[in-house]
Structure formats: structure tokens, C-alpha cells
Design brief:
76% of the residues lie in helices and 0% in strands. It is mainly alpha-helical and 278 residues long. It is globular and about 60 Å long. This is Undecaprenyl-diphosphatase.
Length: 278
């Protein structure tokens, strides 16, 4: 019997789609909802399921940014065979994304037992939500928002890409929150920070989903729940991406900061009262 049924998979797909690219922690929200539905958050099958349905959200990014991705990949391909093309920003940016993904892959593989064990606790999620809120608020205040997407450098990509490790080790910190905050500290504007977060997330999240697929199926999650969760996350994530880009063009991240603090405090209260298992 599957540890997650189709109905629960649909709910988790909605949660994943809404929260994957908002700086509120998709992993944290998935674990909270799993806990409320009495799904064991540290079960190997559940951890694998969460990674697999992320692929649906990543597919939404690929579709939404299809023209940009084709442009970047085409420039990369031309640069491999034409020396003059290697001075093009898109060619260099493609290599930067590849290089910036390496640290999170190494840490993800090395720290897998911790990530799926002690660090999967909802206590960690609650603390990371609150601490991450402070980081995000400070970054938004510190950043001068004066650099656009065309101004990004190799240093920017490596620092922003490396910050994904925080979210990997501390579910609740938020991958998008960590990357956007780092980009803001580097003085990128909010739209550029958000788009950079999207592009840097594509290889890491896709790789994690593919890596966990066999474990999710083998450990007790049926094909039907996986398919439903992935499809739902794709549809919902597409709308979430469109909304977020419009929102950050005109607003600060303060709404997300406040929301994270509220959710983190409520989670601490529920855990302390024993209303939800850690």
C-alpha cells in the first residue's frame, strides 16, 4: 500500500506548485502539510516523493522561460564550436549555471543521511522559517537594486548558486529565499534576483527529482500518486511564476517575511502543544 494516496498527492502538488518559487520554503510547507495529514515526514518514500514532484514545478519553469532557455542553450552550443561566440553573455551564463550547481550536488550527496534524517525535523523547519525571514528582510534593506540581469557575473552565479546549500541543509530556509536574498545583497534588482533564482534552480531540482524517482517508487509510493502530484505541481507552479514576477517588479519582499514569521511561530506552537508530530 502506498504511503501517500492520490488525494494527498494532489494536495501536496498544490502546495509544491504554490511554494516552490516563492521565498517561503516549499520543503517546509510540504513537511508541515504532510505532518497535518499524518504522513511520516522522514520516511524515505515521502522524501523521495517530495523531490519527484518538484520536477513538475521545474517543468513549469522550462515552459514559462522556454524562449530564454533556448536562447541561452543555443548561445552555449555556438560557443562550443565558435571562439567568437564565447564572449556572448548567454554563453558565459550557461557555464556559470553549470558551475554554480556543482557545490549543491556535492553537499547533497555527502549530507544525504542528515538531510533525510535529523534535519528533516519540523523543529528545524520552524526555526529556519524564522531565521530565514531575518536574512531576507536584511538583504532587501541592504541591497541597492541597481543591477539588472545582463549585469550578472560569474561571482554572482557562484555565490547565489552556493546559497542553495542553506535550503538543502535547513528545510524551511527556502531555496528561492536564500538565492534571492544573496542576489539582493549583491545589488541585483528584485526581478533580476528572481529570474536568476529560477535559472539556477533548474539543474539542481531536476537532478534531485530524477535521483529520487527510483527510491520513491521502490520505497512505497505508487506511480499514480507520483503522476498526480507532479502534474498538479506543474499547473499550479506555472501560475505562481507568472504572479511572482509581476509582484516583485512593484513590491518588496516584506509580505513574504511577515508570512514566514507567522507560519514559523504557528508551527512552533503546534509542535510545543503536541498537536503535530515533528
Amino acid at each position: 500500500m502506498s504511503v501517500i494516496n492520490v488525494g494527498q498527492a494532489a494536495v501536496l502538488g498544490v502546495v509544491e506548485g504554490v511554494t516552490e518559487f516563492l521565498p517561503v520554503s516549499s520543503t517546509g510547507h510540504l513537511k508541515i502539510v504532510e505532518g497535518l495529514m499524518n504522513i511520516p515526514v522522514d520516511d524515505d518514500a515521502v522524501v523521495g516523493f517530495s523531490a519527484v514532484i518538484q520536477v513538475g514545478a521545474i517543468a513549469a519553469v522550462l515552459v514559462y522561460f522556454f524562449k530564454d532557455i533556448v536562447r541561452i542553450v543555443s548561445a552555449w552550443g555556438r560557443g562550443l564550436v565558435n571562439k567568437e561566440e564565447r564572449y556572448h553573455h548567454d554563453y558565459k551564463f550557461a557555464w556559470w549555471v553549470i558551475a554554480a550547481t556543482i557545490p549543491i550536488v556535492i553537499v547533497g550527496l555527502a549530507a544525504k543521511p542528515l538531510i533525510e534524517g535529523p534535519l528533516a525535523s519540523l523543529w528545524v523547519v520552524a526555526g529556519s522559517l524564522i531565521v530565514g525571514s531575518g536574512v531576507m528582510w536584511a538583504a532587501d534593506q541592504m541591497g541597492r537594486h541597481k543591477r539588472g540581469e545582463d549585469d550578472t557575473t560569474f561571482k554572482d552565479a557562484m555565490l547565489v548558486g552556493g546559497s542553495q546549500i542553506l535550503a538543502l541543509l535547513f528545510p524551511g530556509f527556502s531555496r528561492s529565499g536564500a538565492t534571492m536574498s544573496t542576489a539582493l545583497i549583491l545589488d541585483l534588482d528584485r526581478v533580476a534576483a528572481t529570474r536568476l533564482s529560477f535559472f539556477l534552480g533548474i539543474p539542481a531540482l531536476t537532478g534531485a527529482g530524477i535521483y529520487e524517482l527510483k527510491d520513491a517508487l521502490g520505497a512505497g509510493v505508487g506511480a499514480a500518486p507520483l503522476a498526480v502530484g507532479t502534474i498538479v505541481s506543474f499547473v499550479v507552479a506555472y501560475g505562481s511564476i507568472a504572479w511572482l514576477l509581476k509582484f516583485v517588479a512593484k513590491h518588496s519582499f516584506n509580505a513574504f517575511v511577515i508570512y514566514r514569521i507567522i507560519v514559523g511561530a504557528l508551527l512552533l506552537g503546534l509542535l510545543s502543544a503536541g498537536a503535530i508530530n515533528s
